[in-house]
Prior knowledge:
By secondary structure, this protein is an alpha+beta fold. It is built from 13 helices and eleven strands. Strands 2-1-11 form a three-stranded antiparallel β-sheet. Strands 4-3-8 form a three-stranded antiparallel β-sheet. A three-stranded antiparallel β-sheet has the order 5-6-7, with no helix packed on it.
Amino acid sequence: MGIRNFFKRSEESSSKSKVGYFLSEDAKDLLVSGYSRLSDSPEVLTAINQIADLVSNMTIQLMKNADKGDVRVKNDLSRLVDIKPNSYQTRKSFIFWIVKTMMLNGNAIVMPITKNGQVIELRPLPNNKIQIVSDTSDDFNYSIYYDSNNYQPTQLLHFVLNPKNDKPFEGTSYRVSLSDVTHNLKQASNTKRSFMASEYMPSLVVFIDSDADLDEEEREKFEEKYLKRKDKNKPLLLPEGLVNMQTVKPLTLEDLAIHESIKVDKQTVASILGIPPFVLGVGTYSKDEWNSFINTKIMSIAQIVQQTLNTLIVEDDMYFNFNPRSLYNYSLIEQVQAITALVKVNTLRRNEGRNWLGLPPDAEMDDLIVLENYLLQQDLSKQGKLSQNVNDEFNN
């Protein structure tokens, strides 16, 4: 039994070559290459941009532990992270870049620039110049190469998404999970574009009583003689039995079932990325689903960012924290009702409530107010109504 030569082409060639078709323009429109980047898929890019946009909308607060609850601290470090991380970016664009880079590549690297022991700038590093190399002798040690320079992880801010099983210090993107669905979406988009741009068959078919094959010139003569009139509004007058006309329903996208497949693929993308399907145009909007999306996916990504930023803090009792309150979908009436309820039980000042609504503070609304019924036990005797009732009972 001989060994088959896999490098030798088979001599059994097909009787009908397919080379001519695959070199045609129609084949170029329908065929899709095997590798598709996540950034090439409009659905995936829309979902990632939505997540990055929401995370970057939240303010980053520097908090400090206190005996009666954590308080917000405002200093040079908090201003650097929340307002101006570098000379070319705002906090919005800086956090947007971190989240988007993490979701597309699994890792985002930022270089802190220091001066006299103080961080003065946070510089994002392009992913195409980054190489993460693990130490073969120590599984828990690795280095980051950037522009031919070797950096230790403690020298940079390494934001990690979806840690690998064998290398927990290195993140992974959603490329493997979304490879098939992005390929299907690209194929459906190309098929739809090719279908809409191609020359469709006419909806009118004319059967001629003739046994001979008509060439193009004879067809045009027959059309000029029987199927055209000077006045287009007048009906056609044809000899009986010579011509038979029938209408044909053209093929539509519904017949190809492209809409259903795209809908399923969009739902798959939404499920993998953890976003509501209506963000990608599938299904109907739900306020509860949106608020759950903020509590789960958005805050999960925000935890990665804020915990990595904590390495910039020297003090042990401080930490960074995102404020997600502005992302929740609450109506103005619901916000006013919540503020009113907190003011009644002496939990919130009215000026703090005005801040929630985006209104400037009022000098006359900085005091705490409570109802008579919400007094301390030792202060019950100070209520006029109770004192009057006690005196009346004593006199009786």
